[in-house]
Amino acid sequence: MKRDAASQSMDSELEEAICKLAWLNFARARGDVDSCAALLSELKVLLTRIPSLPPSFEKTPNAVEELKIARAIYENAVILSLKINDREALERNCCQLKEFYINTCGMIPPSPEEYPFLGLNLLRLLAENRIAEFHTELEFLPLEALNHPCIKYVVELEQSLMEGAYNRLINARQAVPHETYVYLMDLLSETVRDEVAECSVEAYDYLPISVAKKMLMFTSDQELLEYISEEQSEWEIKNCSVHFDMAKPKSHMNLPSFKLFKQALSYARELEQIL
Predict the structure, then answer these.
(1) pTM for this structure?
(2) What is the pLDDT of residues 17-60, one digit of tens each?
(3) Nearest Cα to 226, choosing from 235, 5, 21, 162?
(4) Among 138, 140, 139, which residue's Cα sits nearest to residue 153?
(5) Which end of the chain has fewer CB atoms surrounding its CB within 10 Å, N or C?
C-alpha cells in the first residue's frame, strides 16, 4: 500500500510538472515574463520533491520522463534569466542545466538544445572576461562538440578577442547561430569596449573625439560623452579631444619590481581560477 501511495504521489507530481511546463512554454511564446517567472518558481519547488533528479538519481518508475521534464525546465530558466538580464540567475541556471547534460548521459535522450546552451555558457564566460574559466569549460567538452556551429562560433569569438580583432568580434553579432546568443552580445561589446579603453589609456595621451568615437565603437559624440561621464570619470574633454592624463598609471607603477609584482598577481589569479 505504501509503495502504491508513493507511486501515485510521484505520478501526480509529474503530471503537475508537465501541465505547468506547458503553461510556461505558452507564457514564453507570448512574451509574458512575469508569468514565466512565477511558473518557474513553482516548478523549481516541485522539482525538489522528485527523487530521480540530481544528485540522488533514484531509479523511480518515471525517472526518464522526470529527468527530461526537469531539463526542459532549466532550459527555460536560462532563457528567462537572459531576458530579465539577471547575471547571477543565469550563472546559477547554467550550472544546474549543465548537471543534466553531463550526468544524465545514457539515462535520457540528449537534448537538441544541449550544444547551443553549452555554447551559451561559454559565451557568458567570454562576455564577462573570465578567460581562464572559459578554457576550463572548453576542455571538458567532448570532441564532437567542437564541431557544432554554436561552439565553433564562440571559440572564434574568443580568438578574435585574443587577437585584438575587435571589429570582427563586434560584426559577429550579425551571424549569431542561436537566438539566445543575442542577449549576451551587448555584454560582450561592453567588455570589448573596456579593453579598447584600457589600451587607449596606455597608448595615447589624447585622441580627437572623432577618433575616440570610432575606436570605442560609438555612433555619435553624445554616446561617447555619456560613456566617459558614466564609466571613465578620469578622462577629460579639452580642445575637441579626449585626454587620458588623469587615468595614466602613476610613475611608481612603471618600476620593474612593480610590473613583476603585478604580473605575479595576475598569474596567481588565473591559476586560482583554473584550480
Answers:
(1) 0.80
(2) 999 999 999 999 999 999 999 999 999 999 998 889 888 888 88
(3) 235
(4) 138
(5) N
